Hints:
- This protein is of the alpha+beta class.
- Helices cover 28% and strands 38% of the residues.
- It has two helices and five strands.
- The longest helix is centred in the last third of the chain and has 12 residues, at 49-60.
- The two termini are 20 Å apart.
- The model has no long low-confidence stretch (mean pLDDT 92).
Amino acid sequence: MGKARRYGYIFTWNVGDHLPIHIHVYKDGKLLCRWRLFDEIELSGKANAKIRKAIKELRKEGVFVALERLRDED
């Protein structure tokens, strides 16, 4: 399981989680959305502009590299 923090949000993911490949976004212990990482859309909930910005930054920094490898294996 992976975890990252940015702008007060907590982003979590599990390499063995169900498809499609996604991350969970929390704030103050509440699940705000599940984000389809490669389609760049919500799987559930709503991602505001700050969440979207944080995800882009985290991807650019290579935080989701384990999930990127899963996509490459398909």
